[in-house]
Amino acid sequence: QVQLVESGGGLVQPGGSLRLSCTTSGITFSNYAMRWYRQAPGEERELVAAITRTGDSTNYEDSVKGRFTISRDNAKNTVYLQMNSLKPEDTAVYYCNARHALRGTTYWGQGTQVTVSS
Q1: In 10 A of CB 32, how many CB atoms?
Q2: For a Cys staple, 112 with which of 9, 18, 35, 79, CB 3.0–4.6 Å?
Q3: Strands (E), 16-67
Q4: CA-to-CA distance for 31 and 19, rounded, in angstroms?
Q5: What was the pLDDT predicted at 77?
Q6: Helix H or strand E segment including 7
Q7: Would residue 31 be called left, alpha or beta, if left means φ above 0 and alpha means ψ between -120 and 50 degrees?
Q8: Is residue 86 helix, strand or coil?
Q9: Which residues of 57-73 are buried (b: 16+ CB within 10 A; e: fewer)?
């Protein structure tokens, strides 16, 4: 059974930091490109950051460039999203996504809430 379990969300003040983690099981993690998406109330889900299966390339949505960093530890089957200088507009449910590099098979986590508010 494939599982993607996010953790690390919570309430933080503007300017603060959080680190999200997504630990996977049931897949060969190193065969999957990993992505973080987010969805704010009333908005569509949007891609925030992506990392290749080897970790040699990353991409970011424009509004988070320079503030967020995606990374992965293939030995721990885990992908991370370090979020710094958080803004109220970063408030959303953040979802982990795994996509097989060749087959395109996709799995989602259940999401973790991030709230940025004073």
Answers
A1: 26
A2: 9
A3: 18-25, 32-39, 46-51, 58-60
A4: 23
A5: 98
A6: strand 3-7
A7: alpha
A8: coil
A9: eeebeeebeeebbbebe
Contacts of 12 (CB under 8 A, 6+ apart): 18, 86, 114, 115, 116
Cα–Cα distance measured from residue 29 to residue 99, given in angstroms and rounded to the nearest whole number: 10
**What helix, strand, coil percent values describe the chain, rounded to 5?**
10, 55, 40
Token pair 């933080």 in the structure block, residue: 12
The predicted pLDDT at position 31 comes to 96
Collect all residues with Cβ–Cβ distance below 8 Å to 1 and sequence separation of at least 6.
Answer: 25, 26
Low-confidence ranges of the chain (pLDDT < 70): none
